[in-house]
Amino acid sequence: MGINNNSKQDLEDFKTYILVEKNFSKHTAKAYCSDILSFLIWMDEQSCEEVNFSKVREYLHFIQKFNYKKTTIARKIASIRTFYKYLYRERKVNSNPAMSLTLPKRPKSLPKFLTPDEVEQILNSVKIETPSGYRNRAILELLWATGMRVSELSGLNFGDLNLENNEIRVFGKGAKERIILVTDRAKSYLERYIETARMLIPKGYRLEETTESSPVFINNTGYRLQTKTIRNVINEIVEKIELPKHVTPHVFRHSFATHLIENGADLRVVQELLGHASISNTQIYTHVSTQHMKEVYNETHPRA
Fold it and tell me: Among 22, 59, 178, 236, which is disulfide-ready with 18 (CB 3.0 to 4.6 Å)?
């Protein structure tokens, strides 16, 4: 078994296209290219430019045996659609053989979120006696105060900070720029981290002079802190305090949005703060609030 040489080149060109022109995140681009590679391996030596609708359906029937989740199947279909849309744009195929495929219905699930007390419990459990501990507290304060994605936080540079006005510039999905707001408390932790703890984090490594392109959050070698490290920090804290919830950086984002809406925030404002392209993505948090309202009603009303 092998891959047709023309198909190999098509995949390489497609990767460049979705990263450079479409501004896909590295994570999404990697997933899409992996999906296409699996498809090409299954095709063996047959060129991807010779594929028709029946062949794509045959491939989807083949992968059913692996019992993928519906979300994974949906992504694989989206990957093939996007790949052939690119090939059609480049006039390498006459039509998109995957365009008429229907996506499986995704199971509807409400985002998980933390109560304000649970958030405070997590924040207060961070040991701030060490430079890295103080950095971690500043990170979690920011996640809770701003609702930014963990990738956006990891990517922060000093040139993105406008703390005098309690503002931070972030670059979200598709490299879309937006301004998010910071509470005074989160700002205080961030400023103290920058002024004192940051320079003490690198152990045995010389920290370069700070410029506008320097990363705000660094590891113990002085390089940009990666998202995996932030996730590990949260996992360790939650495990230590035995909080009976699976908590990720995105759960902080969900919690931020849910509590804004519960306290009367305008949906359009929340959409802007989160960087959602469509307000339909933001509306899920109104369902979360309704669910929470029902739970409180059932627990507290004497006739419920």
Answer: 22
**Predicted TM-score of the model (pTM):** 0.69
Catalytically active residues are 149, 173, 250, 253, 276, 285
Specify the CATH superfamily of domain 5-89. Tyrosine recombinase, N-terminal domain (1.10.150.130)
| Third-level CATH fold of 116-300 | hpI Integrase; Chain A (1.10.443)
DSSP codes, the chain: ----HHHHHHHHHHHHIIIIIS---HHHHHHHHHHHHHHHHHHTTS-GGG--HHHHHHHHHHHGGGT--HHHHHHHHHHHHHHHHHHHHTTSSSS-TTTTPPPPPPPP-PPP---HHHHHHHHHTS--SSHHHHHHHHHHHHHHHH---HHHHHT-BGGGEEGGGTEEEEE-GGG-EEEEE--HHHHHHHHHIIIIIGGGSSSSSPPPPP-TTSBSSB-TTSSBPPHHHHHHHHHHHHHHHT-SS---HHHHHHHHHHHHHHTT--HHHHHHHHT-SSHHHHTHHHHHHHHHHHHHHHHH-TT-
